Amino acid sequence: MLKIPNILIGGSQNVKEQDRFLKRSEIQPVQILNNSEFEAITYFNEIGQYGISSMAWDSDNPLILYYSTGKDFVKCNLKEKYAEKINIEGLGGVHEMDYINGQIFIANTRFDEIVVYDPKLDLVSKRIKLEELETRTIISRSEAEEGDVVDKYHCNQIFKGFDEHIYFLAHHVTGRQLLQKIAGAFLKSQGSGGVFDLDNSMPYNLSLKAPHSVTKVLNREYWVFNSAYSTIQIHDKDWKQIDEVEMSGFGRGACLNSDQSILFAGVSPPRQRYMERFKAKKKVFSPKVDLFSTKQRKHLKTFDVSNIEQVNNLYLMSDEQVHFLLKL
Fold first, then answer.
1. What rounded mean pLDDT belongs to the chain?
2. Which CATH class is domain 6-327?
């Protein structure tokens, strides 16, 4: 029998009205999965226009939680039951936030930027404008035959690699995104997703489509969601693909249990406006959490998630953290 640890699910309502199937009042953006059951952290039910996009905390101080609704940055003391907004200007479409070397790296996706916040000094220590990367190739709009070229990486995660380098995950690792006009609306093309080594200014085009959630597994592999194809690509330490595993649907948000034997993967239904463009073998119509054996590289179980339209992130939580979260 599978032992299910405390898994926190952060999610939201879909931003575009045509993609929604729940009212905002029905959204429970933060939930805990434990022993195969979900429990809402009701404190967060009315926070955010759509819900919660990301969270982060220092392993040395796990009762100090930072979260974002997508355009803000908030510090929450779970034990003392208070929250304060940290003033960081120019946040929008925040995806993942990760603690790296004592600082929080924020994927400021809408503005194609990485924001680095130092919690000890309580200030932004660095802002990395991706448009200024030296290796970036800019193609003029006049060269595009199918639509307009938008110079944008769509960076959605920053992480430390096995080599101790700092990387970011991007939908367009070359910094070029093509917009195609279909049925009177612009849809973003995908297919050049990969990772970028900031230390060496080296892009790795992994030919991913709308990738999310790089996870380091068993000290030897990177697991990356190839979200538009509902698969997980498995790469070695040199970013060579060595395997692929099928998911239930569009993947976003991942975490491991304590011994890294199980990967938990967030799954969301494709948005209505993209439905016909997705090449996934399976189409799901409700959010889920998939469980995978990392040693056998196979699917183990799937849980359905209610009261969320989009799963944004998953986190492994201690009993102490859950205790104080439920008391907020």
1. 89
2. mainly beta
